[in-house]
């Protein structure tokens, strides 16, 4: 759960079940090993609690895009306390969603989540829909999020491919250190082959493989000694060959337009009313970059310009 706009990168959905005879023994072994490990080592996260509800799961999925769990936890808790149902969020202005998003980054996710909550309140009686197609029709919900909510909240059988799962499959099955930069048809075929036929087991498998990638089969320092499938891992059995694909560059933040946008939004979030241009000018020394960042916020619908030259969060 760590790539921004992962919905665009990882198309998913229901797949045809395997033959009645079931998956071959090695795949069944993978299922058992990974799910047993998950049962013993899964983190206790609020959106995983039996009483969490589908709305909590949906909120977590929006927040966890490109954001670590430890940063999401306090914001998710505050969000659910303030807006325990989609209708509660829908009754507020989009600007309040942006304000409550705080420093999670990529604040357009807050606007998308507000749009989804509004649609749920207006079209689904305030309940997050069970059906993948209905989830996919919600504003701001793409293939990945629809599959993840259906799987994690309702125990449905879907391929759920985020960066962590793709890395686990790349190493354990394909034998390479990292998956391609963008999800491929071959990866989706692999995921379909591995997906358990039983709906409840498939949902557990989706959560377990994601957790394995997050905690053990990590990008930089995989802990193969703790991995439940180390003895079956194609990458490890091949000697853990180095990555041969395009260089994997870490994202930069300091000095970028993203940093400027964050500082501008911080001023607007902290103010109960409109903010004058002078207050925004004080947050960044370079006027051209500052103006570009502010224009981008306006274009994205995160900030509204007023006739008197002031700015505010959207209402």
What do these coordinates show?
It contains 16 helices and two strands. It is mostly helical. Strands 1-2 form a two-stranded antiparallel sheet. The model is unreliable at 1-24 (pLDDT under 50).
Tell me what portion of residues adopts beta-strand conformation. Answer: under 5%
How much helicity do the residues have? 40-55%
Mean pLDDT rating: 91
- The rounded Rg comes to 21 Å
Tell me about the largest β-sheet.
2 strands, antiparallel
Instruction: List unreliable stretches of 5+ residues.
Output: 1-24
Strands of the widest sheet, in order across it, are 1-2
Query: What would the principal axes of the Cα set say about the shape?
Result: globular
- The succession of helices and strands, N to C, reads HHHHHHHHHHHHHHHHEE
* Separation, N- and C-terminal Cα atoms: 30 Å
Structural class per helix/strand content?
Answer: mainly alpha
Oligomeric organization of the protein chains: single chain
In total, how many beta strands? Answer: 2
Put simply, the count of helices is 16
């Amino acid at each position: 759960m760590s790539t921004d706009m992962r919905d665009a990168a990882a198309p998913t959905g229901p797949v045809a079940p395997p033959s009645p005879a079931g998956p071959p023994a090695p795949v069944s072994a993978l299922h058992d090993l990974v799910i047993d490990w998950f049962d013993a080592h899964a983190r206790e996260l609020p959106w995983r609690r039996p009483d969490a509800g589908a709305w909590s799961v949906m909120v977590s999925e929006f927040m966890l895009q490109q954001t670590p769990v430890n940063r999401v936890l306090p914001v998710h808790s505050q969000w659910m306390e303030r807006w325990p149902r989609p209708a509660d969020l829908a009754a507020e202005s989009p600007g309040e969603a942006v304000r409550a998003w705080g420093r999670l980054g990529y604040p357009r996710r807050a606007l998308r989540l507000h749009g989804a909550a509004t649609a749920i309140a207006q079209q689904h009686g305030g309940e997050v829909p069970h059906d993948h197609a209905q989830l996919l029709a919600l504003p701001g919900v793409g293939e990945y999020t629809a599959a993840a909510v259906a799987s994690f909240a309702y125990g449905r059988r879907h391929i759920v491919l985020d960066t962590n799962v793709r890395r686990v499959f790349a190493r354990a099955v394909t034998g390479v250190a990292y998956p391609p930069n963008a999800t491929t048809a071959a990866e989706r075929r692999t995921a379909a082959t591995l997906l358990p036929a039983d709906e409840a087991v498939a949902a557990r498998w989706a959560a377990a493989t994601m957790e394995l990638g997050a905690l053990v089969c990590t990008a930089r320092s995989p802990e193969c000694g703790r991995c439940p499938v180390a003895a079956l891992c194609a990458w490890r059995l091949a000697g853990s060959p180095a990555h041969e694909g395009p260089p994997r560059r870490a994202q930069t933040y300091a000095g970028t337009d993203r940093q400027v946008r964050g500082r501008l939004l911080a001023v607007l979030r902290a103010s109960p009313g409109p903010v004058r241009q002078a207050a925004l000018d004080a947050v960044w020394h370079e006027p051209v970059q500052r103006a570009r960042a502010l224009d981008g916020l306006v274009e994205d619908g995160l900030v509204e310009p007023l006739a008197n030259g002031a700015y505010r969060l959207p209402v």
